[in-house]
Design a protein that fits this description.
Blueprint lengths: L2 H11 L26 H14 L5 H18 L15 E3 L2 E2 L2 H14 L8 E5 L3 H13 L3 E4 L6 H10 L4 E4 L2 E3 L10 E5 L9 E5 H14 L7 E3 L7 H14 L2 E4 L16 E5 L1 H10 L7 E6 L6 H10 L4 E7 L6 E6 L7 E5 L4 E5 L5 E2 L2 E8 L12 E2 L2 E10 L5 E6 L1
Parallel strand pairs: 1-10, 3-4, 3-5, 4-7, 9-10, 9-11, 11-12, 12-13
Antiparallel strand pairs: 1-2, 5-6, 7-8, 13-14, 14-15, 15-21, 16-17, 16-18, 18-20, 19-20, 20-21
Helix pairs in contact: 2-3, 2-9, 4-5, 7-8
């Protein structure tokens, strides 16, 4: 069977196919697929949907289709950074190979040279197909009082040019090469995050670095991430979540971080650690359950965010890996992005935990009254929220989200829908 033709025909002929993809996964990101123009996260979501709706597409067929193009992309990718095996003096792993501290120093020195031509507090766009170089370009930029805004390396050139045009032709560091532009000075000691544009027009929000680091520590504590953990990068670094929960959390805690140029599931990983943490989206989690590796890898913690996750899926994970701690989370870019975390103990569907330390929440009812409990539009007040929020997004200091939730007497929050 030509599985790709079958899948294409489903898209062409079946009008009512529903693909559950979380908000952060709708627009193109990471590595675009030439066949259906989907990124790897979206393909995981599509995989689960196709398998459940069209059982004649067997699992091997779908797995082969899912992995083949990403493997080709990985082979074609330019090897811009050399790696060495059997080096144990670093807490950074890149595609199953450990990086020495000396290699990281050399990389940072190279990046320092790449950033020459930018001034203090200057805004610039940052994109890189190599997550290791992306991460340290972001770090070196912060160390030099620059204001990086990470974007997807898979954005077409015209979209990048459009973004730069909207930002007064700011500079661009793309795959290690700097294209200078106008010197745009913004908030001091900050970095920027671009929203996905799924609920409104894409916008850049700016965050205070010191406060962001504080939120990174609070987030890490909420999912029991510590300096003995091994965190595997499943989600893109360039989102607000990636900047805070991978890069800044690593800077603050110093845990082992395994960066992946293409995350294609757990089969490709080589780990014997018993302290592994995964941050996943709902669609990724469904894929990982189907893949059948979770119960073999001794995962200590799985944290899920970025969209609604069904109770059935959480129970499947619990059955497969009974010793794994499961956390459901909620966040939005302009709030920092992390807002709430909860340990899953068979709570009702939609459970997204309690607000994190220092953050408060309430609900706005249909009559516009605001209550601490009840069902309505979620309002969030955070000391870590963006510096450039506008009044139309606020209500008495609270961010007005687009999410309908319930808050009970214990302060537990349950997600219902997005407006």
């Amino acid at each position: 069977m030509d599985h790709l033709s079958v899948i294409k025909s489903i898209f062409r002929d079946v009008e009512d196919i529903e693909i559950e993809i979380s908000v952060d996964e709708i627009s193109a990101e990471t590595h675009l697929r030439d066949d259906l123009e989907l990124d790897s996260l979206s393909v995981m979501a599509l995989f689960s949907e196709l398998e459940s709706k069209y059982p004649f597409l067997n699992e091997d067929c779908l797995l082969n289709w899912y992995t083949i193009q990403d493997i080709i992309n990985s082979l074609k990718a330019e090897e811009v950074i050399s790696t060495e095996k059997n080096i144990v003096d670093s807490n950074i792993i890149f595609d199953n190979k450990k990086f020495s501290d000396q290699k990281i120093k050399e990389l940072k020195k190279e990046i320092q040279q790449n950033l020459k031509g930018l001034r203090q507090n200057e805004l610039f766009l940052l994109a890189d197909k190599n997550p290791l170089r992306l991460m340290f370009s972001f770090i070196v930029a912060l160390e030099n009082n620059l204001v990086p805004v990470m974007i997807s390396d898979s954005l077409p050139e015209f979209q990048i040019n459009s973004l730069r045009s909207k930002l007064d032709q700011c500079g661009l560091l793309l795959n290690g090469k700097l294209e200078t532009g106008n010197h745009i000075s913004v908030h001091e000691r900050t970095y920027g995050c671009l929203t996905s544009g799924t609920t409104s027009q894409p916008k850049i929000f700016y965050f205070d670095i010191l406060k962001a680091k504080e939120l990174a520590r609070i987030h890490s504590k909420s999912i029991q991430l510590n300096n003995e953990s091994l965190l595997i990068q499943c989600l893109p670094l360039y989102h607000s979540f990636g900047a805070l929960c991978y890069i800044l959390s690593w800077l603050e805690l110093g845990f082992k971080l395994h960066l992946k140029s293409n995350f294609m599931g757990l089969k490709q990983l080589e780990h014997s650690s018993e302290n592994i943490t995964l941050n996943t989206s709902p669609s990724q989690l469904r894929f990982l359950i189907k893949e059948g590796q979770l119960e073999k890898m001794k995962i200590k913690t799985v944290s899920i965010g970025g969209g609604f996750v069904a109770k059935e899926t959480l129970n499947q994970l619990k059955d497969l890996s009974p010793t794994t701690d499961i956390y459901t989370t909620y966040g939005l870019t302009e709030a920092g992005p992390r807002v709430s975390t909860g340990k899953y103990k068979s709570q009702d569907s939609g459970f997204i935990g309690h607000v994190l330390e220092g953050i408060s929440s309430s609900v706005m009812l249909e009559d516009q009254t605001v209550k601490d409990q009840g069902t309505g539009t979620l309002l969030v007040k955070s000391p870590y929220q963006a510096l450039n929020l506008t009044s139309d997004k606020m209500n008495d200091g609270y961010i007005i989200t687009n999410d309908i939730v319930s808050i009970n007497q214990e302060g537990e929050i349950f997600f219902h829908s997005r407006t």
